[in-house]
């Protein structure tokens, strides 16, 4: 086994703590994971017209996502080829060209170098502009409005990368005609990005305890759902683990759901019901992680990218989706409910962030690193169900299979010499996990 596979013991469900604080691990992640996986960039509704752009991050790299004159969405590094300066400082906007603030090189919407001050007089016509465009993100593709990009030309197509996770993402993306609410909310936490990611991939367990006070205070509210969040054994749902480390827990709708609530209006839409089908219609909400760092909550309609800044610093970029055909008052209700839930002022987010920071801090001690973390809840009891109602699933919501599978995939990406190797390694779950 490679170096990183030794830090994740999938038989015993153990994960070594140094992977959350070590500088060398972090540098390898930027190349092996953020340089290789499909990463979420933006929602198509954020770049609807020619010349529209948003400025985002892929790992630690600043990237421009832009709709060209030809209507095609491209992404390229926001770094001038002359001295590397950022050619665009704005978060979003509409442009015809990007002019570098340092010496004035300019690039068109396809990243092509189109203007060089003094091209004739100073460069003597020697500079071949066709060779000095902005570095393109190797592949850009969309899934139901979500734009992803990968730096790796050898990465499999997006559809294949998402695989069975698409069935889970549809729990959100088929709820209506979703668009991004303008304004990305950002905040940073003194934590490793993986602790936030694994929580999203499958930690229903913590909700009973961490979010107890928020739930007792009456939150979440407003979506017509009154699941008993506080009782062990009362949660009913399922867990999905998929290839390449994506995963989630999903809760079934409780029996006492108020389907007449305004925020449950989408559930009554026959078109939505048809798209989701009889099995998925009964999902209350799912917390998901698209590996490596896109958190999705299908209830509050949140998309949160956990951007790595350093081993011990993570900046979250959060976008809320609403149904553009919903009544404006319902849209406002949904945004309010979502903001009470997640984001820097959200009751759940504040609970979670404190935990992620303390776990990170405790991982940095030379003494504490001798003690690996336990990700083994339910290990050996996760019967994989393959009944045709869904991709392979486990009919329990309270376990750590999705989290452990995320670390399994993490170790495989970290050790794999190339995508070819990874494509052989990954498979659907079967038997008992
Ligand atoms: Fe961009 Fe010199 S760094 S023009
Ligand atoms: Fe939480």
From TrEMBL:
Signal peptide stretch: none
Record key words, sorted: 2Fe-2S, Dioxygenase, Iron, Iron-sulfur, Metal-binding, NAD, Oxidoreductase
InterPro entries in alphabetical order: ARHD_Rieske_2Fe_2S, Rieske_2Fe-2S, Rieske_2Fe-2S_sf, Ring_hydroxy_dOase_asu_C_dom, Rng_hydr_dOase-A
Record-annotated Rieske domain positions: 39-122
Keyword Membrane: no
Molecular-function GO terms, alphabetical: 2 iron, 2 sulfur cluster binding; dioxygenase activity; iron ion binding
Stated family: Belongs to the bacterial ring-hydroxylating dioxygenase alpha subunit family.
Name of the featured protein: Ethylbenzene dioxygenase alpha subunit
């Amino acid at each position: 086994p490679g170096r990183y596979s030794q830090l994740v013991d999938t038989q015993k469900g153990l994960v070594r703590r140094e992977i959350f604080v070590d500088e060398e691990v972090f540098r390898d992640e930027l190349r092996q994971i953020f340089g290789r996986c499909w990463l979420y960039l933006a929602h198509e509704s954020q770049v609807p017209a020619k010349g529209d752009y948003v400025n985002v991050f892929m790992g630690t790299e600043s990237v421009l996502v832009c709709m060209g004159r030809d209507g095609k969405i491209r992404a390229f590094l926001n770094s001038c080829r002359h001295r590397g300066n950022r050619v665009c400082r704005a978060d979003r906007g509409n442009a015809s060209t990007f002019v570098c603030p340092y010496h004035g090189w300019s690039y068109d919407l396809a990243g092509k170098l189109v203007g060089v001050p003094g091209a004739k007089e100073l460069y003597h016509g020697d500079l071949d502009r066709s060779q000095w465009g902005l570095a393109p993100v190797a592949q850009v593709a969309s899934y139901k409005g979500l734009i992803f990009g990968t730096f790796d030309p050898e990465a499999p197509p997006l559809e294949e990368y998402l695989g069975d996770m698409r069935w889970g993402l549809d729990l959100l993306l088929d709820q209506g005609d979703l668009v991004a609410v303008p304004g990305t909310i950002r905040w940073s936490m003194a934590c490793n990005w993986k602790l936030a990611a694994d929580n999203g991939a499958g930690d229903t367990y913590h909700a009973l305890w961490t979010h107890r006070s928020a739930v007792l205070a009456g939150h979440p509210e407003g979506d017509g759902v009154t699941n008993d969040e506080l009782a062990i054994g009362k949660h009913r749902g399922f867990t999905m683990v998929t290839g390449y480390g994506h995963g989630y827990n999903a809760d079934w709708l409780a029996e006492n759901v108020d389907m007449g609530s305004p925020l449950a209006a989408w559930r009554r839409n026959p078109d939505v019901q048809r798209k989701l089908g009889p099995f998925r219609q009964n999902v209350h909400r799912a917390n998901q992680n698209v590996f490596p760092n896109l958190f999705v909550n299908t209830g509050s309609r949140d998309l949160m990218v956990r951007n790595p800044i350093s081993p011990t610093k993570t900046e979250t970029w959060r976008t809320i989706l609403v149904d553009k055909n919903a009544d404006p008052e319902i849209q406002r209700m949904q945004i309010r409910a979502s903001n009470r839930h997640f984001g820097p002022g959200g009751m759940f987010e504040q609970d979670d962030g404190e935990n992620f920071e303390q776990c990170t801090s405790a991982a940095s001690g030379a003494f504490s690193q001798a003690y690996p973390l336990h990700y083994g809840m339910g290990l050996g009891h996760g019967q994989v169900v393959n009944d045709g109602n869904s991709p392979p699933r486990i009919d329990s919501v309270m376990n750590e299979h999705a989290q452990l599978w995320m670390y399994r995939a993490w170790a495989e990406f970290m050790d794999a010499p190339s995508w070819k190797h990874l494509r052989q390694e990954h498979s659907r779950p079967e038997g008992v996990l």
